[in-house]
Amino acid sequence: MRLQQTWWLRQDCLRTIGLIVCLFAILMTACGGTSQSGSAQKATDDKQVFVYPISGKDISTFDPATAEDNASVVASSMVFTGLVQVDENQKLIKQLAESYSVANDGLTWTFKLRPNLKFSDGSPLTAQDVLYSINRALDPKTKSTTAPIYLNLIKGGADFNAGKIPTLINVGLFAPDPSTVKIVTEKRAVYFLYTLAYISSFVVNKKVIDKYGDQWTDHLSEGAGAGPFINSKYIKGRGLEFTPNPNYYGSKVQLKKVVMPFYQSNDTVYRAYQAGQVSWGNVSSANVESARQLPDKQYHAVPAQSIYYLTMNYYSKPFNNIKVRQALALALNKEQIAHSIYKDNVIPTNHIVPSGIPSYNPDLAGPAGVTSLKGDRTKAKQLFNEGLQEEGLSVKNFPTISLYYNAAWPVDDRNMLTAAQQTWQEVLGISIKLEGMDYPSLLKRNDETHGNPNGMQMWFIRWGSDYPDPQNWLTLLFDKNSSYNSENFGLNTQVKSASRQQQAIDLMQQADGNIDNTERIKQYQQAEQILVDEVAWLPIYQAYNPTVVKPCVEGLSPTAQGLPVGDHWANLYISTQTPCTLNSSL
Fold first, then answer.
1. What pLDDT score was predicted for residue 443?
2. pTM of the prediction?
3. Which are the contacts of 566, defined by CB distance < 8 A and separation ≥ 6?
4. Secondary structure class of 526 (helix, strand, coil)
5. What does DSSP say about strands 573-574 and 553-554: parallel, antiparallel, or unpaired?
6. Nearest to residue 206, comparing CAs of 218, 224, 222?
7. Residues 61 and 70: beta-carbon distance below 8 Å
8. How far apart are CA 404 and CA 456, in angstroms?
């Protein structure tokens, strides 16, 4: 999931893709705030208001099929739900599905729905609604950028999305009866259930869409979703309010209202937290020391399953040369960057797969076999000169290179890019131009760089876990056919290391369907080592998620995921503990 850089993720947001389930983007964080008292007295109903700020000017959509940005995924996940979701502890849990099973062929998945499911207006939710929603997400008319990625395992999915067949229903999607959903996949995929946990497969009410057409998301309260909440208020540019869904299938929500005001930055969020205006907040590095001094264990920080990285276009000369890419990586001292710029609030890394994800490899080596996170300037110079010579270039005629980034990011990330720029000038003798742009433009340029020699040359972005499986970090991002492969790994067959790149892709594809977990993890680790040596990404750090939460907020899990998911919202309530939130409405 590429997410907007708010700070709990140190937020980037490129795709939200999700988010997933996370409620994402802001979501992929440690939301830190278990019950502070263990068992606290519940406040009166009028105090049962949870104020969760969102960094950003607004959401872009309430449609789960098209939600990409952090704010939109968070908002949509309040109103909609799917067959399964990934909870705050990275565990797959059943939601609309009461049970699921896979046939011996490994291709046919059967889901039994919970009895008496309803949309928020009380109308029945059946297997046909599930089929309609998944089919709609993949329909090219919907123009979803995430569904073709997360739902492409479904038989016929690629052909339907390309307009080659009229529907997926009775091709890869079946409803033998109102309470049974059958999904047939194109190939064995151990991770298939995780892809269904992403928001693009969440169920929407056809009746509301048929009635209001493109304006259907303006009428969410008329039974559009079946999630734990109803959107009761939306003031564009200001914020959102949600009230409990009376027809929700899960445990009863104790809160009476959730308020999500929009804030321009995490510094503003923290000031609002200090003023008692929000229940929870991300903490920028500039405010970490202040947050650590707060009483009653309000401050929390755990590693986030998100990597911030630089990357280069394999089609863009001289980045087609592995030695040039390795030189840029080895010139950087990541330990110094983490300490001097981020004040040790990030984890410097060479990894693509972060700690906390199966297949994390503690023995992973960096590019050219260099294990130190301090890099190797001598080796960087040597490799750079060799690479330039192979490409018929020199430092004097080195091409003009632009490095793009989200101009709205916190100052720490901008300072990191400036430090990298200065290091490359000092060590390699080259000048890299920094180009800030707004986030939507960066997303658009990123998407357009896939398969494009004229796309971006170099950029800085982040990926956050959509589901806790290495496929989400490897095959999804680096397979030749993945639109997320903006680096064009394995696509430029003219590079000298093309065969090695293909070896990594083969290993990832084999691992995707391997039911022998030990062998599967080994294959992913071998593939990741090739990716790191090839500098498919130039990872800078794994984020921490520093957050603060009011002592009165009970039942919020301080884990990697953030907001509750599905019926876990029932665990969250406001106690009589002080201090607490003062602001309860937009």
1. 85
2. 0.81
3. 81, 85, 87, 93, 95, 227, 228, 250
4. helix
5. antiparallel
6. 224
7. no
8. 8
